[in-house]
Amino acid sequence: MWADNGAVSAPTAPPDTGVQLLYPQRVPPLERKVKRLFPESLPISLRGWVSGGYVFNTSTPGSNFNGPYNEVDRDRPQINQIYFIAERALSATKGINLGGRFDVLYGNDFFLAQSNGLERNEAAFPKWNHEIQGVALPQMYAEIGNKTFSVKAGHFYTIIGYEGVPAPSNFFYSKSYSYQFAGPFTHWGGLATANISPQITFQAGVVNGWDALDRQHDKPTFIGGAKYETDDKFFTGSLAVITGEERTTIPGVFGNRTRYSALITLRPMEKLEYTFHQHFSSQANGSPNGGAATWYGVDQYLYYALHKTIKGGFRFEWFRDHDGIRVSGAPDRGNPNFGRFAGDFFSVTGGVNYTPHPNITFRPEVRYDWSSGDGRPYNDGNSNSQVLVGINAYVQF
């Protein structure tokens, strides 16, 4: 539910990639401070990172595509993100402050942060990005208020879900199905945040649907959530919901789409953290036969700090695309194996975050995917499973 920095170690203050968080903070940051390239005394903070890597598909598909549409969708070296942030953050807990933020992303991950009416036209066709690498403007908003209560207006990351677009906000290089296929990435509109106490946070706003500045069917959509965290941070729980009209897979047909994400994080000891994520979505008029479509699932994450610079992680996920309307091979990115893959999708991922310097993190991982249902989504349509071996590094500045 929000997208921010992360590394290894015990929970501390939230990192500073700049999205207000509702869900439990993921991948607690190192206590060592990132050394910024630009002076932190400037009125406007300037910072960013570069992220790139390689994923080897043991099936060696002829098309080089790693199964369905995913962030690391090819087994070729790639620059995922060259990311730059300019931000004036709200600094006080009382009074009225003015702030804002502007993000620019270049790289293979541009498609995760595009909006209809900006990078794409209102019908979701590309406007200026037609290659594997592209440019997106994930956030540009103004903000008023303080750290207790604030309102932002403009373009910002969603509060729905667990993983995020910025590389430092995720422990794993690859993305979960729940992030890639199940929910929105960004919104245009307004969002209010109220930190009632150190333990309780509420957020609520109105946006123009999922990933859209201008779309074929502009209508207001409600988004909101709440978080509770104990003083000792042993337990953190949150719930976020978005509901409003969205386009279906049937041309010219729209219907209400509602999604919620429920998260629980437990920290039974300083070095150990467990997160449970359950999500459910429903789209009226969304199934191929005209009825309601649903997609839902469960993600589980386990992290353990092996050393002050090394953290191990494990992720298991189950994703159910009951009507086959969410998981696809995305022919617009060149994947020859596309279609409706209705059924259940599973993955198990294990990896390590190694941070030899506060600015540098390496993320090797091994991932096994399998599915049951219609079609064969992996190895160019020849298999119901695949094994991926990935290595990524990101450098913050």
Helix content: under 10%
Mean pLDDT: 90
Element order, helices and strands?
EEEEEEHEEEEEEEEEEEE
Which quaternary structure do these chains form? Answer: single chain
Q: Major sheet, described briefly?
A: 18 strands, antiparallel
Shape: globular
CATH fold node name: Porin
**Count of individual beta strands:** 18
Compute the CA-based radius of gyration: 20 Å
Low-confidence stretches: 1-21, 23-30
Based on the structure given, which CATH architecture is correct?
A: Beta Barrel
Supply the number of helical segments: 1
Explain this structure:
By secondary structure, this protein is mostly beta strands. The chain contains one helix and 18 strands. The chain has one helix at 177-180; strands at residues 45-57, 78-88, 97-107, 134-136, 140-145, 149-157, 186-195, 200-207, 221-229, 235-247, 254-269, 272-283, 293-307, 310-321, 343-357, 360-362, 365-373, 385-396. It has an 18-stranded antiparallel beta sheet that branches. Strand 7 and strand 8 form a beta hairpin. The two termini are 24 Å apart. Mean pLDDT is 90; it is low at 1-21 and 23-30.
